[in-house]
Amino acid sequence: MSASIYLDYNASAPLLPAARDAVVAALDVVGNPSSVHRFGRDARRLVDHARRQLAARLAVDPQRVIFTSGATEANAAALSGVDVTRRLVSAIEHDSVLAANAVETFAVDGKGVADLASLERALVEADTPTLVSLQLVNNETGVVQPVQEAAALARDHGALIHCDAVQALGRLAFSPDALGVDLLTLSSHKIGGPKGAGALVVRDGLPLKPLLRGGGQERRRRAGTENVAAIAGFGAAVEAANIDAWSRATGLRNRLETQLVAADAGAVVFGAHADRVGNTTCVAMPGVDAETQVMAFDLAGIAVSAGSACSSGKVASSHVLGAMGVPDALARCAVRVSLCPDTMAADIDRFVAVWGQIAVRGQQGRRAVA
Ligand code: PMP
Question: Which overall architecture, per CATH, does domain 5-13+244-369 show?
Answer without folding.
Answer: Alpha-Beta Complex (3.90)
